[in-house]
Write a structure and sequence with these properties.
alpha+beta, Alpha-Beta Plaits, 5-stranded antiparallel beta sheet, 5 strands, 23% strand, globular
Length: 124
């Protein structure tokens, strides 16, 4: 049985960059903040969690998807960008349910699986 799209609480965008592309990443971040009602996450100048390189996260509500994603498609400045829903299944959301702009990067999904198991044990 298919999962209803109402299961999507919000969306996350992860914009990946390095020293050479940092200025482009800042322009994309500024554009998202200027044009949309988004929650900007911290800028990480190291690999964190399942993410293989520097990045920042942008959170937005489902009602903005139809405007934000087309804007990002045209304005991501060649950066690699992960777009995923938040349904409560972090592994699936970052893999099977994800969209990519630019090159698809290899995420550390083992890290996410380990964290999911840890949370499940804590709830039990």
């Amino acid at each position: 049985m298919p999962t209803e799209s109402s299961a999507i609480k919000d969306y996350h965008v992860h914009v990946y960059f390095d020293h050479e592309t940092q200025m482009a990443a800042e322009r994309v971040r500024d554009g998202l903040a200027e044009h949309f009602d988004v929650e900007l996450g911290r800028i990480h100048f190291k690999a964190v969690g399942p993410h293989p390189q520097w990045m920042y996260q942008v959170k937005f509500n489902p009602d903005q998807f139809g405007r934000l994603i087309p804007w990002l498609m045209l304005n991501h400045e060649g950066l690699n960008v992960l777009i995923h829903p938040q349904t409560g299944d972090d592994v699936a959301d970052h893999s099977d349910n994800a969209l990519w702009l630019g090159r698809k990067l290899r995420l550390k999904l083992g890290f996410m699986r380990k964290m999911a198991k840890k949370r499940a044990r804590a709830r039990a």
